[in-house]
Each structure stands twice: as C-alpha cells, then as structure tokens.
Design goal:
Number of helices: 12
Strand content: 15-25%
CATH superfamily of the largest domain: Ribonuclease E inhibitor RraA/RraA-like
CATH class of the largest domain: Alpha Beta
Keywords: Magnesium, Metal-binding, Signal
CATH topology of the largest domain: Glucose Oxidase, domain 1
Cofactor: Mg(2+)
Structural class: alpha/beta
Helix content: 25-40%
Largest sheet: 10 strands, mixed
Number of domains: 2
GO molecular function: metal ion binding
InterPro entries: RraA/RraA-like, RraA/RraA-like_sf
Pfam family, one: RraA-like
Number of strands: 12
Radius of gyration: 23 Å
Length: 311
C-alpha cells in the first residue's frame, strides 16, 4: 500500500467513526432499525410507543395465550420463568428499557464513564443509575445482570423509589437487589429478580442501554412490551402487541364458552377439546352475539372484524 493510499484509508476510517459514534445508549436510528416493523408513534429515543390502553388490556391475558400466539408467529425465544417476585399476586405490563451489565474491567469502565459524560449522564454516582434517569411512565427497566446476586445487586430501595417515581412501574432483573424490605414497601413497585442480598454492587459494570439483551432464555429488544405475572415473563415485539391482545382475548372468550357448555353438558369434553364442528362454531358465534358489550374486553367492532377473518 502506498503512503497516499494509507493516508486515504486512515481518513476514511476516522470519518466513519465520527459519523457513527458508539455510545453507552443506542441511537434512535439504531432502535428504529431494530423495531422497523412498528408503525406508530415513538419516543424521542426511538422506542415504539405502544398505547397505555393496550398495556392495560394486556394485563388480562394469560401467559399461555401470549406464548402460543408468539410461537405461532415464529417467535420461540420470548419467555423466561423461575423468578423471585416481590409481589407475586400482581401483574405488570410496560414498555422495555434495556440495560446490560458485565463483570468489571477497569479500562472498559473508564471508557464507559467517558462516553457517559459525553451523553450528559451523571458521572458522580454509579452508572447503574443511568437507565433509571431515562425511564418514562409505563416503562419497565429490564436488565441483564448475568444472574449475579451476591455483589450484583443492581438497586436498593433508594433507586427503587427513583424507578417508581419515573415509570410508576417496576423491574425485571436477571440479577439481584438489596434492601428487599424497602423495595416491598414502595407502593405500586414490583420486581422479577433472581434473588436478594445485603451486598452492594461490586466488580460489575453497566455496558449498554437500549441494546438487545438476553434474559435467561429470552431475547429482549428496547421497545418490546412485557407481560409479567406469577407464571413468568414474556417479551412481546411491539408490532405484534395489538394483534396478540385481541387474539388472546378471543381465546379467553372461547374458553368461557367451552367451560359453560361443559358445565351444561351440552357437549362432551372430547368435542370441546378438539377441532370444533361447524355446529359448535355456529353456537359460539351465537353465544358471542348475546355477550354483553359492557363486559367485552374489546369493542364489538374489533370482535366482529376479527371473527370475520377466522374459520
């Protein structure tokens, strides 16, 4: 390579790095690429803004229904279970803000601190506060702490209060927390965690915000929507939420119909628990027509339009 070509190559690489700087947080452009199937409003950071109305409806969906819908659409790696839950009887839904943590490496930690300062983040305290500072109402802070609990406590009650103040929601951590009693005392806050320990976070560092992460056996993207209950957590691509909710609500109505007819002994278990005959399908449609609009989880038009597309 000639000196002229060498200089040209160096200048090209420098201009490329300046044009595409790598920071702690993903750029809005990258998040939009990750979630390109979403059509609708977005936050300033690029994450899809799934409506609060859909988040509320999602709370009524059974885990198996959501899981089955995603599997049917080719998303086989969106569920994770085996959690310690702060308030097991509560259901939590929300939009994902992701964070990734790794074992501490001094040179990388210094770079993260420099990048954080360039992004106008608070470099006086710990970097584990950075994801909390950007939370919006109805967000859920989801962190890959690689399962570490001892010396891997990502928050205590102080940060827990800050999380709830910003999001009115909780956390899902593949990692640990400290001051569990204090976290339990925060009204409305909840958490799906791997465990708790009195130790402070140590030899662990934040490496990215709003990048793809792994939570157990699930892959999670920023802007995904979470359904979390006592039976586990499921991470739903934003562009599938509306269709998943409606389809799952219809499955719920279908189950109500089947249970009622079984109690009435109109059909046998074998007839209900297999592919329905045309007569049962017609009976179900008639049952739906008599179902009170005020008790439907969706609008009557949404239900009718959906049923018109089904066999």
């Amino acid at each position: 390579m000639t000196n002229k070509n060498f200089v040209f190559t160096i200048l090209f690489l420098c201009s490329f790095l300046l044009a595409y700087p790598q920071g702690v947080a993903s750029t809005p452009e990258y998040i939009k690429e990750l979630t390109s199937n979403w059509i609708g409003p977005r936050f300033d950071d690029g994450r899809p803004k799934v409506s609060d109305a859909l988040l509320k409806r999602l709370k009524g969906i059974q885990m198996e229904e959501a899981w089955g819908y995603l599997r049917g659409h080719g998303f086989h790696n969106q569920y994770e279970g085996n959690w310690q839950i702060i308030h097991p009887d509560s259901v939590m839904t929300g939009r994902v803000v992701t964070a990734q943590y790794m074992p501490l490496r001094p040179d990388f930690k210094q770079l993260i601190k420099i990048k954080g300062a360039q992004e106008n983040r608070d470099t006086i305290g710990g970097s584990n506060s950075w994801p909390i500072e950007i939370l919006q109402p109805s967000d859920i802070y989801v962190a890959d702490g690689y399962g570490r609990v001892i010396d891997g406590t990502l928050i205590g009650s102080n940060l827990g209060n800050a999380i709830y103040a910003n999001s009115q929601n909780g956390v899902i951590f593949d990692g640990g927390v400290r001051d569990l009693k204090g976290l339990r005392d925060i009204k409305g806050f909840n958490g799906w965690i791997r465990g708790d320990d009195p130790s402070f976070i140590k030899e662990q560092m934040l490496t990215s915000i709003n990048a793809p992460i792994r939570i157990g056996r699930a892959i999670v993207l920023p802007g995904d929507v979470v359904l979390a209950n006592r039976y586990g957590t499921i991470f739903i691509p934003s562009h599938l939420v509306a269709k998943l909710v409606l389809a799952s609500e219809v499955v719920g109505l279908r189950d109500q119909f089947g249970f009622q007819r079984l109690r009435e002994k109109t059909y046998t278990p074998g007839q209900i628990d297999t592919k329905w005959t045309d007569a049962i399908k017609a009976d179900f449609r008639n049952w739906l027509n008599q179902y009170p609009d005020s008790k439907l989880p969706m609008t009557r038009k949404e239900l009718n339009d959906y049923m018109d597309t089904q066999n």
